[in-house]
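Changelog note: in this version the structure field was regenerated for every chain. One regenerated record is shown below for reference.
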Amino acid sequence: MRGFGTTGGEGFRGGITVGNTFYGVWIDKVFSFDADGGAGAQLTGVPVPGTAPVICARNNAAVPDVVIVAPGDGAVILSAGAVASYPDPDVGQPNAVCFLKGFFVFTYGDGKTRTSGINSTSINTLDVATAESKPDALYRPIPLGNGQLTLWGSASGEVWGGQNDTAYPFSYIATINRGIVGPYAIAGHDDGFGKGIFAVTDDFKVSTLDGYTPVPVSPTELDILIENEPDKTQISVSVYVAQGHGFVVVKGASWCWEYDTTLKTWHERQSHLQTGWRGMFPVKAFDKWLCGDTLSGNLLEITGQVHDEVGDPLRMRIETGPFGSFPQAARINTIELYLTKGAGIATGTDPVQTDPDVEISISRDGGNKWSNPRSVKIGRQAITAGRVRSSIWGQADVQGVRWRFDESSNVPFGFMGVDMQAEVLR
């Protein structure tokens, strides 16, 4: 990630792109940015209520109405370059909003949903419906790509579609047999993503929608983290695209995992000296993916053109399972790495980019303790000859050894495999 814009504040809560402008909320203020980034322009008007992440939507009016909902604290709109209270008090205190077929669709904690007029902020109190499957709280309205609407509650989801002539403009179609854990625990409908809907469902798994059926995609390790999260309503799911791959970001209070929708694989993500990723609520804008920053009041750009996070190292860590010759012990002669050679950048920062390396550590007790790392060189620019290995690691326990590989040099890098050369001790 690299810097894109600044606010001088802190506490990014979310944002939305409208035409050639990105609007973001920091604490109770809204800032706008154009494609050049730089210092954001603070909008005047009323403060955005609450402190929780916000949910935003816009309509297709000639001058688009932009609605910002602070779940449980009310809604505001952006009007004439300023922040204003929602113009129709009948909106009440929604917990979320989306836009579909000309309507703003609001949801409420009591299981109700209501809509605005077409490309309008007006509210008709008769344009209301109640989720029909279970008497649970509604968390989010999410539009599907086929023009249908899903209403997500704490114990179920519902699909609505068609269009009524009077009152609430959509009709009930089907029930989804899972709910979501909180208002921020679903994403994928975002502009520019197009890789599917993903949610942390009420069985404490990450699932993606296949038709109307949630299909789990998360590994057991992540399921356990979700189950053990003290306040599951604060778990967030967000998405972005980088180098053609879609990424689904699942964050708890002290952890972060990402799912690559192209490779269909998971990895943990940690920023430098953090327990999770510093990026927050990515949004596509100006043909880029922008996000907030937990460590500053800045707006960042997610890009494959840099290999660090705003100057901080971005560590790749691989930990293996046990290697050994159970039930015999073994002597480890050499560990050899199969990776991209010659990845150094001659004009880069010396020695981090000019002569990058990988650190190798060993654990002989199943990962409880690790040795001090040894460094092996990846290779300076265009120097692709030679082997990347380290020798004389001593004896392995009968349970084998585990290996750890760390790389944080900000250069393009690929790690394909490893070979442990050992001899069995009789």
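Spot check on this record: The domain at 2-314 is CATH 2.130.10.10 (Methylamine Dehydrogenase; Chain H). The chain has two domains: 2-314, 318-425.
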